Amino acid sequence: MREKVLGILHRKPVRVLGYVSLFIIAFIIFFYATFPHHMVGRIFSLYLQRQTKGLVYAEGVKVSFPLGLVIENVAVGDVFTLRDVKLSKHIFSPAVSIYGHTLGGTFQLEYKYREPYNFILNAKKLNITMLGLKERLGMEIAGEADVEIEMHSSSSRRNTYDGRVILKLKGMSVSGGKLLDIFELPPLSLGEGVLKAEFKQSVGEVKVGRIEGPSLKGELKGRIFLKIPVEQTRVNCVLTIKPGRELEKAVREKLSFLNLRKFGEKGWRFSISGPLIKPRVNPL
Predict the structure, then answer these.
(1) Cα 30 from Cα 17, distance rounded (Å)
(2) CA distances from 284 to 2, 95, 136, 164, 259 (A)
(3) Is the whole-model pTM more than 0.70?
(4) Residue 259: exposed, middle, or buried by beta-carbon count in 10 A (0-12, 13-18, 19+)?
(5) What are the pLDDT digits (tens) for 36-79?
(6) Which residues 6+ apart lie within 8 Å of 173 measured at CB?
(7) Are 194 and 210 in contact (CB under 8 A)?
């Protein structure tokens, strides 16, 4: 029997390979067609909600071949939504790749979930208006942002991270309105901005932090102390603002109780400290 099989393989190798290939393709199609996509998608959505304590919700989850998911929408609280998300598992490494659209732009994420950890995020042309800041601040902030984040496990200290964060802002403007229901601000043109921070053992040094436009110039210096989970991250920075004439006139009378002082060309200075998500801001 063995000699007969070997003889067929020797005489008709192309035909045999064709039959094998046809069988494999038919099996893959049958497996994909009968796979319980809806059940797996539901399990994944419930797992995601449980792990994020209800902060993240996914809908329209489908399994893609060979090791991936396609998700129509992923809601992150009431802040923003990820659309057309494609998640794929790397076959030979403990890592995943995620692609999708959000805030009118695109994002790409590479994440290695075993030590040494690695996290790379690139997001382009994010529409800041779509963050819905008007409901929180009382005025509309418009502009476009590019974000680059690269973090990896520190080789010199366990449970700490090295890397960098780059944020670029373009065409920033404020529509004008009542800021935090305290005082009226005129429309402002904030221009362009950039933030670059380099991290060593989870301590980030702000190398470049500035925004410059017709209505104001601002500079940020200080440190960022990265923690996991991220909401425990803390900051200790100094923000210097040199307002344009129109902004200074609108703000000075309303904030006279803060004893803001002019330092020549340096402008107004504020300390920003405490938790990143809700820092304390005090005049210097």
Answers:
(1) 20
(2) 89, 46, 26, 28, 9
(3) yes
(4) exposed
(5) 556 666 766 776 677 666 677 777 777 776 667 788 888 877 76
(6) 141, 142, 143, 187, 188, 189, 190
(7) yes
